[in-house]
């Protein structure tokens, strides 16, 4: 049970949301944006977070868009994970998010919520990092479009306090490219990942990104380069990738660092076996 | 204003309840509407024993705020008048302590209504939303698969 | 199956509670909500071992709606079922992460929780022990400084003061020197696993109130309503007759609801607010960590055998991890010793079974009561021995299967009644799973399919005076009310007991109304619904009550029919003459007195009463273990088939099989459900369930998203079959069966995986990382 009380508002436009944020903040209130709310409820009931105001974004029409136009796939930030899997506009995305939590939970978790999650995994981000997607962000100065790689600094998407994601925009040309993904857990399918690997064919090359190795999702151009080194064997490429890792892989209750490394190696090899077969 | 009166349709009837914004739908269903079929197995969205249907979709009532159900249609186990699943569970002995049963029944109902052509992988995916600690799942899986076959054969 | 012609026993009679459950109509304990009930919330320890320097309640007390806040100071006396070593609320120190430190009672749940979050505790950390082997060492720091001064509540608890050993059970059977001399081959192995949990889907919950005349009213989701009454009576000095405990249907238990914890707390909370009704319900996190858990174990086994495969000697050293308090851990360490050899004939046995304190959540009974633990260890060791001897594992077990005429580790003489048929179970298992030896089948995509087996046995560690009773009253329509205090936790006991009565009275099930809820004020006394003993105890009580009712029916019937009682038979709602059934009188015309045509009445009410008590149980000799700990041994054999991926060390559970000697299966469908249930629980435990601790003893996975359990997609198919060697004094020959599906699963799974991975696996849970570690030769 959440033991603290808060105000709940549900604006019907991005402007209204920003206005409300400003008003409440000016009055010294702590304000949080609310999507699916599953993470909010879990953290609030365990006293991990506290807020005076909740701004529910789900009534904002722009956040509920899910369509393909001539150039782009437009995904509203408050679309649920199940919505995205069912419509399947972006197969890698569907495949990755289908493994997050349970289906009933995915009926509530929003893609925006997953991208802004406090947990280290944020697996929904991986396909967008690979596809070089853009984020449409609500700001004081109107809707700003930024590349996800620009706003994703170090370990998470960094926005100003009052900003929120309205939509994710992905180049239509890449959504149907060949892909591979795998989620490895400690044992059960339904559990946090030890490693989630996602790979997307971008023109001639494979791009690959990971969740679970660190406290944040991770993609590196240098690693991509090694992965695409057709002159060396899969095993050798994978060894080089390990050497390129920027920091030591985490050690936690789900897996040791060494075991994660083993899992990373086998997943990379599996990915290469799957994808090189397609591209060659 | 941290509390408010909201209106929602529960099992076909309009209900008005006065809630804290911080109350979950599960809490309101049980404590204010006396609909105790949905159970608080974890209050964290992990076990599915609080599964209800909102506009036909299965959701964990513990993982949403009551205010989010404002003006929505909620179905709980008490309001599931199509008793095909319950009857099948009885026929197949698909329960023991019964605590997970309402959640499973509603999830299975939604599965059969929404995806009558679900294959084994999809059935597994839906059923993985609910934990059972008594049966070992065999009878539940068999019940759902038999009903899907019947639905596909007879409509 | 037995050739007897039963009408109800042995039939797939539909569960009496199935409709209410399928339709979601059941009111479990916390589904009953009354206005005005106060809510209790806990503030629990963030340290695993620390002195409590100060508890600041100031801010908490200022929260509006708070009626009272209690701490250990309000009741600084330890309680416990075997050793009274646990203060209901932490007193002076905390011994595990999650231990209750204060209880807030408030008008509303959110206010109680808010106030609880404002309580400030100052701790002075103490050294933390997380391994029972380490904690058992002579110079280990003490978790219980006053061990030795604690009241012993039952016989057979041998604590060692100035250590962390709450109980030591010794088995000294035969002559070990001779045994080792006779051994051509020996194996020795170490095993370990940490604590796990019951995870019943309904968390523990209690409502308590104290009426003005001092009567205590408890509403609890417990396996032992009379046990709660007993414990509250003993520790709070209240006459048992003034304590009423009520229990409706229970949403799963698995042994975790067999002891008393929340009831103490809720009583104290109610007392603090002048006796007003207080509700205390566990969050899932509290249910996992604060409330008792499934114990861990570190063990060493040494087995000796002749080259031909005959077991000659066995030595067991167990260090059971009972956590911060002993609760029923002390009983399980004893139970592990009592049946340490598994269902095998071994004449020379040396066992030291320690129940050891650690700074981890404390343990209570878990389904199987020490046997899943001892069986994992023994059955894995048997496969190791089989490998060394180059004998087929199933053949090795058949060769050594214990039989009537042999003795148990505590030297109980076994006969064809008090021991099921182990060999028959093994032979039937061989057929059921098509066992052709220790084979590894390689599939087309490089996976490896293997089967692993395990045998098991268990006797119930009931107290020597465990009883059950039944009262039968008749209604004016000739139907019967069956009143007995067995708790329905999902096992189907209410159905099975109704069947037994139906058989005895030859009366349609629909004419029997069994009381589903238990109320200690109206129900006859019964030992807790645990230990697979309820069919036996309550079943015999039902039969005794039925016989009593039949006697009375025949007495009055003889008057009505102008004959002798011996001329009469009872069946189908009638009392009739054996040789001329056309002369009968309806039960409904006798039930509330028989009326002559002229209006005179005779007979009074038919009131059936019966009970049963276990017999001839004795305590164990503290030096040798000699004694009779239980009434009978249920036995069986199990197997697990897996598909293992040698590339990434993952595996799929394909099939789990059990062959159980049930004596007489009362309800086949229910019995199959029980076996599947146990197999699921045993496999989930063995393959993935465990608490994860950091070096400070903090539980890292106190939620169901991170405390891993098997879900539908990863459950195996289940195969079940039965052997029936009647238990002579069981109801219709039935043996207890409830727990057994769990017992051999860890052994069978570890055996199957060891064959597949070609390394010997000795730890639980059997995760891919553990297998990878073992295969690649690394330690931790």
From TrEMBL, chain A:
Domain FAD-binding PCMH-type, first and last residues per copy:
1-185
GO: which molecular function terms? FAD binding; oxidoreductase activity
Read off the InterPro entries from this record: CO_DH_flav_C_dom_sf, Diverse_Substr_Oxidored, FAD-bd_PCMH, FAD-bd_PCMH-like_sf, FAD-bd_PCMH_sub1, FAD-bd_PCMH_sub2, Mopterin_DH_FAD-bd
Keyword Lipid biosynthesis attributed = no
Q: Which Pfam families match?
A: FAD_binding_5 (PF00941)
Q: Write down the SUPFAM superfamilies for this protein, in alphabetical order.
A: CO dehydrogenase flavoprotein C-terminal domain-like, FAD-binding/transporter-associated domain-like
Q: Which UniProt keywords apply?
A: FAD, Flavoprotein, Oxidoreductase
Q: What is this protein called?
A: Xanthine dehydrogenase molybdenum-binding subunit
Automatic annotation (TrEMBL), chain B:
One GO MF term attached to the UniProt entry = 2 iron, 2 sulfur cluster binding
Which pathway is it part of?
Alkaloid degradation; nicotine degradation
Q: Which UniProt keywords apply?
A: 2Fe-2S, Iron, Iron-sulfur, Metal-binding, Oxidoreductase
Q: Per the database record, which ranges form the 2Fe-2S ferredoxin-type domain?
A: 4-80
Q: Which InterPro entries match?
A: 2Fe-2S-bd, 2Fe-2S-bd_dom_sf, 2Fe-2S_ferredoxin-like_sf, 2Fe-2S_ferredoxin-type, 2Fe2S_fd_BS, Beta-grasp_dom_sf, Diverse_Oxidoreductases
Protein name in the entry: Carbon-monoxide dehydrogenase small subunit
Q: Which organism is it from?
A: Pseudogracilibacillus auburnensis
From TrEMBL, chain C:
Q: What GO MF terms are annotated?
A: iron ion binding; oxidoreductase activity
Q: Where does the Aldehyde oxidase/xanthine dehydrogenase a/b hammerhead domain lie?
A: 23-127
Q: Which UniProt keywords apply?
A: Molybdenum, Oxidoreductase
UniProt cross-references to InterPro entries, sorted A to Z:
Ald_Oxase/Xan_DH_a/b (IPR000674), Ald_Oxase/Xan_DH_a/b_sf (IPR036856), Ald_Oxase/xanthine_DH-like (IPR016208), AldOxase/xan_DH_MoCoBD1 (IPR008274), AldOxase/xan_DH_MoCoBD2 (IPR046867), AldOxase/xan_DH_Mopterin-bd_sf (IPR037165)
**Entries under PANTHER family matching the protein:** ALDEHYDE OXIDASE 1-RELATED, XANTHINE DEHYDROGENASE
Protein name as catalogued:
CO/xanthine dehydrogenase Mo-binding subunit
| Source organism of this protein record | Pseudogracilibacillus auburnensis
């Amino acid at each position: 049970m959440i033991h603290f009380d808060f105000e709940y508002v549900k604006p019907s436009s991005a402007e209204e949301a920003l206005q409300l944020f400003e008003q409440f903040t000016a009055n010294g209130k702590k304000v949080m944006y609310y999507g699916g709310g599953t993470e909010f409820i879990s953290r609030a009931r365990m006293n991990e977070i506290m807020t005076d105001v909740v701004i529910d974004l789900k009534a904002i029409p722009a956040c509920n868009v899910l369509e393909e136009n001539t150039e782009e796939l437009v995904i509203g930030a408050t679309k649920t994970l199940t919505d995205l899997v069912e419509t399947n506009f972006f197969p890698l995305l569907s495949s990755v998010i289908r493994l997050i939590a349970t289906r009933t939970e995915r009926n509530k978790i929003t893609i925006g919520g997953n991208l802004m999650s406090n947990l280290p995994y944020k697996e929904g981000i991986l396909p967008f990092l690979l596809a070089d997607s853009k984020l449409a962000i609500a700001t004081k100065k109107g809707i700003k479009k930024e590349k996800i790689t620009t706003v994703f600094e170090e370990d998470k998407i960094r926005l100003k306090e009052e900003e929120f994601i309205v939509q994710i925009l992905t180049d239509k040309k890449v959504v149907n490219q060949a892909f591979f993904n795998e989620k490895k857990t400690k044992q059960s399918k339904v559990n946090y990942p030890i490693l989630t690997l996602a790979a997307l064919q971008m023109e001639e090359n494979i791009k690959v990104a990971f969740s679970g190795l660190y406290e944040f999702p991770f993609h590196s151009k240098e690693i991509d380069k090694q992965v695409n080194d057709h002159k060396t064997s899969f095993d050798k490429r994978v060894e080089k990738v390990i050497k390129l890792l920027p920091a030591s892989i985490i050690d936690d209750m789900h897996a040791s660092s060494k075991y994660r490394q083993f899992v990373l190696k086998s997943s990379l090899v599996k990915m290469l076996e799957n994808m090189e077969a397609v591209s060659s | 204003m941290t509390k408010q009166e909201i209106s929602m349709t529960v099992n076909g009837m309009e209900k008005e309840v006065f809630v804290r914004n911080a109350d979950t739908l599960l809490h309101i269903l049980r404590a204010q509407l006396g609909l105790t079929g949905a159970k608080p197995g974890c209050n964290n969205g992990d076990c599915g024993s609080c599964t209800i249907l909102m506009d036909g979709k299965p959701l964990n009532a513990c993982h949403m705020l009551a205010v989010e159900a404002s003006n929505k249609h909620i179905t709980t186990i008490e309001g599931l008048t199509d008793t095909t699943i319950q009857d099948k569970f009885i026929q197949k002995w698909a329960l023991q302590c019964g605590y997970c049963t309402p959640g499973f029944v509603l999830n299975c109902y939604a599965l059969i209504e929404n995806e009558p052509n679900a294959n084994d992988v999809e059935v597994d995916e839906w059923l993985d939303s609910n934990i059972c600690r008594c049966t070992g799942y065999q009878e539940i899986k068999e019940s759902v698969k038999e009903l899907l076959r019947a639905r596909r054969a007879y409509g | 199956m037995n050739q007897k012609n039963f009408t109800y026993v042995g039939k797939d009679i539909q569960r009496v509670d199935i409709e209410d459950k399928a339709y979601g109509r059941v009111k479990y304990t916390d589904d009953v909500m009354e206005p005005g009930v106060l809510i209790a919330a806990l503030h629990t320890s963030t340290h695993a071992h620390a002195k409590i320097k100060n508890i600041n309640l100031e801010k908490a007390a200022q929260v509006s709606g708070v009626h009272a806040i209690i701490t250990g100071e309000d009741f600084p006396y330890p309680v416990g079922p075997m050793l009274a070593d646990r203060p209901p609320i932490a007193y002076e120190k905390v011994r595990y992460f999650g231990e209750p430190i204060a209880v807030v009672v408030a008008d509303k749940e959110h206010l109680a929780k808010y106030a609880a979050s404002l309580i400030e505790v100052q701790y002075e950390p103490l050294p933390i022990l997380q391994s029972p082997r380490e904690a058992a060492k002579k110079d280990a720091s003490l978790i219980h400084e006053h061990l030795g001064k604690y009241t012993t509540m039952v016989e057979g608890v041998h604590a060692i003061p100035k250590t962390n050993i709450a109980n030591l059970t010794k088995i000294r059977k035969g002559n070990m020197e001779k045994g080792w001399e006779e051994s051509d081959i020996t194996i020795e192995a170490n095993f370990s696993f940490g604590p796990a949990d019951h995870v019943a889907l309904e968390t523990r919950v209690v409502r308590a109130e104290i009426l003005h005349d001092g009567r205590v009213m408890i509403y609890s989701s417990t396996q032992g309503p009379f046990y709660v009454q007993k414990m509250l009576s003993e520790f709070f000095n209240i006459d048992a007759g003034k304590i009423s405990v009520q229990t409706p249907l229970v949403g799963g238990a698995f042994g975790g609801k067999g002891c008393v914890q929340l009831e103490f707390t809720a009583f104290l909370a109610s007392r603090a607010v002048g006796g007003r009704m207080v509700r205390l319900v566990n969050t899932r996190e509290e249910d996992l960590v604060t409330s008792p858990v499934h114990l861990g174990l570190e063990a060493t086994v040494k087995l000796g055998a002749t080259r031909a495969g005959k077991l000659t000697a066995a030595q067991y050293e167990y260090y059971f991890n009972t956590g911060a308090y002993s609760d029923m851990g002390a009983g399980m360490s004893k139970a592990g010793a009592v049946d340490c050899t598994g269902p095998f004939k071994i004449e020379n046995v040396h066992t030291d079974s320690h129940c050891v304190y650690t700074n981890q959540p404390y343990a209570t009974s878990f389904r199987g009561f020490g046997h899943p633990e001892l069986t994992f260890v023994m059955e894995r060791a048997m496969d190791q021995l089989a490998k060394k001897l180059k004998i087929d594992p199933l053949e090795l077990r058949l060769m050594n299967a214990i039989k009537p005429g042999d003795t148990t580790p505590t030297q109980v003489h076994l006969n064809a009644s008090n021991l099921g048929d182990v060999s028959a179970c093994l032979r039937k298992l061989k057929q059921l799973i098509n066992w052709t030896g220790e084979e590894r089948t390689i599939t087309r995509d490089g996976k490896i399919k293997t089967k692993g087996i395990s045998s098991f046995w268990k006797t119930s560690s009931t107290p020597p005076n465990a009883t059950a009773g039944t009262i039968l009253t008749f209604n004016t329509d000739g139907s019967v009310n069956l009143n007995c205090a067995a708790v329905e936790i999902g096992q189907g006991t209410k159905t099975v007991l109704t069947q037994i009565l139906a058989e005895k009275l030859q009366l349609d099930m629909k004419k029997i109304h069994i009381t589903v809820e238990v109320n200690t004020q109206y129900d006859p006394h019964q030992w807790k619904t645990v230990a697979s003993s309820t069919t036996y105890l309550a079943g015999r009580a039902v039969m005794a009550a039925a016989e009593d009712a039949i006697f009375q029916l025949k007495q009055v019937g003889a008057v009505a029919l102008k004959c002798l009682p011996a001329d009469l038979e009872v069946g189908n709602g009638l009392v009739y003459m054996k040789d001329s059934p056309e002369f009968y009188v309806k039960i409904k015309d006798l039930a509330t007195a028989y009326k002559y045509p002229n209006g005179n009445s005779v007979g009074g009410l038919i009131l059936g009463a019966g009970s049963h008590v276990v017999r001839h149980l004795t305590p164990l000799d503290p030096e040798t273990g000699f004694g009779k700990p239980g009434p009978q041994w249920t036995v069986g054999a199990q197997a697990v088939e897996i598909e293992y991926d040698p590339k990434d060390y993952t595996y799929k559970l394909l099939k789990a099989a059990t062959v159980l000697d049930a004596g007489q299966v009362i309800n086949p469908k229910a019995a199959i459900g029980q076996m599947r249930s146990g197999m699921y629980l045993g496999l989930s435990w063995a393959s993935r369930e465990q608490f994860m601790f950091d070096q400070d003893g903090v539980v890292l996975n106190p939620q169901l998203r991170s405390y891993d359990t098997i879900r539908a997609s990863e459950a195996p198919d289940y195969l079940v079959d039965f052997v029936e060697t009647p238990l002579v004094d069981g109801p219709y020959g039935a043996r207890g069966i409830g727990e057994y599906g769990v017992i051999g699963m860890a052994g069978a799974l570890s055996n199957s995986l060891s064959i597949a991975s070609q390394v010997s696996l000795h730890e639980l849970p059997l995760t891919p990382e553990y297998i990878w570690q073992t295969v690649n030769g690394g330690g931790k």
